[in-house]
C-alpha cells in the first residue's frame, strides 16, 4: 500500500557556492532566505552591474521583489534594458543592496569600519514581455518605495507601458553579508588617547508635504502616516 505523500518543504536557505561565498570575512555571510528578503525589502535602490562593450558598468536604480524574483525597470531606451531584450539567453548581471547601520571609529585608521547589511545577487536578467507580469512588476516597484502605494495611484497606461522596460532576476545565487558589534582595536592600541566607539545611523522620514494642486478633500493616507 502506497503511503501518504508528505508535502515537500521549501529550502530555507540559498546554496553557498564559490560564487556566493565572500573571500573576506566569510563568517559574516548569511544564506538564510528570511535574512536576505528582509535586507532587500528595506531598500528601494539597488546597484545593477553588467558588462558593456567589454567594460564594467554599474547603475543605481529602483527595484522590487516578488517572492524569489527581483524586478528592475527603466526606459526602453536605457542601455542595460536594451541589452537584456537583445541578449540570448539573457544578460549576466550582478545586483547589490547595502544598508549602513553605524560608523565604527577605532583608535587606529586600519580598524575603522561600518556596521552594515548587504545582499549580492548573481544571475541572468531577462526582459519581461508578458503584460500581466509586467504590471505585477511595476506594482512591486511602487510598493518597494512605499508599501501600499500601488493601490493608491493610477496604473500605467498603454503609452507609459510601451515606454517602460522591465527585467527580472531570479534569486538563485544569493548571499547576505552583515557586520554588527563594536570596535576591534589591537590590544596594544587600547591605551591610545583617541576616542573610539560606535556612531549609530538611522533612516527617518520628515512629515509629508502635499502637492499644492491636490484635489479638494484629498487626505493624507494611513500608509504615509505610518511612516
Number of helices, where a helix is a run of at least 4 consecutive DSSP H or I residues: 5
Shape: globular
Write down the secondary-structure element order.
EHEEEHEEHHEEEH
Radius of gyration: 22 Å
Query: How many DSSP E strands?
Result: 9
Describe the main β-sheet briefly: 6 strands, antiparallel, barrel
Question: How would the blueprint of this fold be written?
Answer:
Blueprint: E1 29-30, H1 33-41, E2 45-52, E3 55-66, E4 69-75, H2 79-86, E5 91-105, E6 113-127, H3 131-145, H4 158-162, E7 164-170, E8 173-179, E9 197-200, H5 222-225
Antiparallel strand pairs: 1-8, 2-3, 2-5, 3-4, 4-7, 5-6, 5-9, 6-7, 6-8
Can I get a quick summary?
This protein is α+β, with helices and mostly antiparallel strands and 227 residues long. The protein has helices at 33-41, 79-86, 131-145, 158-162, 222-225, and strands at residues 29-30, 45-52, 55-66, 69-75, 91-105, 113-127, 164-170, 173-179, 197-200.
Describe the structure.
This protein is an alpha+beta fold and 227 residues long. It has five helices and nine strands; from the N terminus they run βαβββαββααβββα. It has helices at residues 33-41, 79-86, 131-145, 158-162, 222-225; strands at residues 29-30, 45-52, 55-66, 69-75, 91-105, 113-127, 164-170, 173-179, 197-200. The chain has a six-stranded antiparallel barrel with strand order 2-3-4-7-6-5. A hairpin with a 7-residue loop joins β5 and β6. The chain is globular, with a radius of gyration of 22 Å. The termini are far apart. Residues 1-7 have low confidence and may be disordered.
